[in-house]
Amino acid sequence: MLEVIDASRRYEVAGRTVLALDGVTQRFPVGTITAIVGRSGCGKTTLLRLLAGLAEPSSGAVRRAPAAGIGVVFQEARLMPWLDAAANVAFPLKGRLGRAEIDARVDEALALVGLADARRALPAQLSGGMAQRVAIARALAQRPDVLLLDEPFSALDAFTRRTLQRVLVDVWQARRPTVVLVTHDVEEAVLLGESVLELEAGRVVGRVAVDLPFPREATDPAVVELRRRILARLVGEPHSDPRRKPCT
Amino acid sequence: MPARRALTPVAVFASVVLVWWLAGRLGWTNAYLLPAPKAVVAALTDLAASGALVKHALTSIQRVLLGFALSTALAVPLAVLLSASRPARTVIDPLLEFVRQVPPLALIPLLILWLGIGEAQKLGIIVLASFFPVFLGLRGGIAGVDPRLIEVGRVAGLSRRDILTRIVLPSALPELVVGLRISLGYSWRALVGAELIASSAGLGYMIIDAENLARTDIVLAGILVIGILGLLSDLLLRRLIGHAFPWLSADLEAARA
Question: Is residue B18 domain-resident?
Fold first, then answer.
């Protein structure tokens, strides 16, 4: 179970109140993969932070299965600079699992992101994309019930991005965690989401079910068509509803 | 060019000695006010041969190590406590701020009355002088921890204690290390000051005793030894830190590359 109920979130920015999330009600059924798209500043990250328990809603509620293990991949790698790649991946597991189990999971996760050879590398020695892959491995090694990803692939080159999108689908199909993926890349949303939520000015303004089998190809006409429709809505005419102001 | 980098400081020191030697040779300076390098080396040799140099140096080194260890053992837990607890901060911070403003040497008269002129008084001076760089360094390091790293710990379900030991303290380490290095230097300076005022052994005593005997060559020899020991202890501390926390130096290498 993962859901937000009429959740709003206000921030004070320079004495001004900003409504980052405006009464969102949304269920994320167990074992599904949901993509959230929208422009920068439309509340995507805020919604993800509520789901992760890193922020509390100003009003409304967030419900999460109490014992659920949560893995988060942030927009930035957020690696501990004093730990090498393997120790960073092991970081959330330490003290919870036996040494052998941790080692096995670290090896597996680093191999999944293609960094089996970088075990001993310190974050300062990794490129931005490599660091982000270590961060993805760190979340995967937890084998979480809920996997929350905030633009996880945007720092990666196009080829690596495509590879890791496939890895995500494989992991999801193998273990069926509940996945919520925030992205500004509509194509990525259509390739990975069973459904795509459109967020605008802190509200969910659309929900598209993507009824295509995995793995999906960007060149598939059905993918292209869905992508075109979602893009047209997000960048199209401003909505007549005055509360749906375009984001700035 | 690692060889050239290592040679530069040697060349700088050699030039200073050369100017010093020339100044005496050409009669720019009075041999009593500034004895020639040769006289200082002779004094050093005599002191070393009589065993006095080793005795005084060992006394001072022992005091510095003990005082430095004591002040680190006080400063680290107190910095952690004050960073973690607002009530502790409210009560203790103003007091510490007050003590910090008072130069340790100004407290020597009181310390002599309270602790006598023995080892306790010297340790007291060293602790007062070297406490704050470690304390403030660690406080600053803790305050500067990247909150985004703490979020990684929160998502992983770490306890407050685990977040402190596994994220906050390692993050604060670079600034703690800077504090330790400053503090070790301060320890030396404060100790020599204390030994100048009331002591019967140590390098500071050796210098003041030589002054009373009008032996400026020994005074200079003492200054030289203090400087060299200070440099060596800093080098040793840096080596120790580089060995214990390789990522600190790896960071530097990556930045250089």
Answer: no
Q: How is A54-71 classified by DSSP, letter by letter?
A: SS--SEEEEEE-TT--EE
What are the phi and psi torsion angles at A3 (to 5°)? -155, 155
Residue B3, pLDDT above cutoff 90: no
Give the CA distances from residue A71 to residues A169, A179, B153, B184, in Å, rounded to whole numbers and listed in that order. Answer: 16, 10, 11, 43
| Residue B111: inside a domain | yes
Q: How many CA atoms lie within 13 A of B183 on its CB side?
A: 31
Domains of chain A, by residue range, sit at: 79-142
**Contact (CB<8Å) A95/B247:** no
Tell me which residue range forms the domain holding B151. 38-256
Contacts of A78 in chain B (CB under 8 A): 148-149, 151-152
d(CA B61, CA B126): 12
* Average pLDDT along chain B: 88
Residue B184 belongs to some domain of the structure: yes
> Is the residue at B70 inside a domain?
yes
CATH code, domain carrying B189: 1.10.3720.10
pLDDT score at B253: 47
ipTM comes to 0.89
What pLDDT is recorded for position B198?
Answer: 77
| pLDDT tens-digit series, residues A59-76 | 999 998 877 789 999 999
- CA-based angle B229:B230:B236, to the nearest 5? 85
Q: What is the CA radius of gyration of chain A?
A: 18
Contacts with B244 from chain A: Cβ below 8 Å: none
- Number of folded domains that form chain B: 1
Pick from B152, B157, B166: CB nearest A78: B152
pLDDT in tens, A130-142: 999 999 999 999 9
- Tokens at B203, concatenated: 């390098």
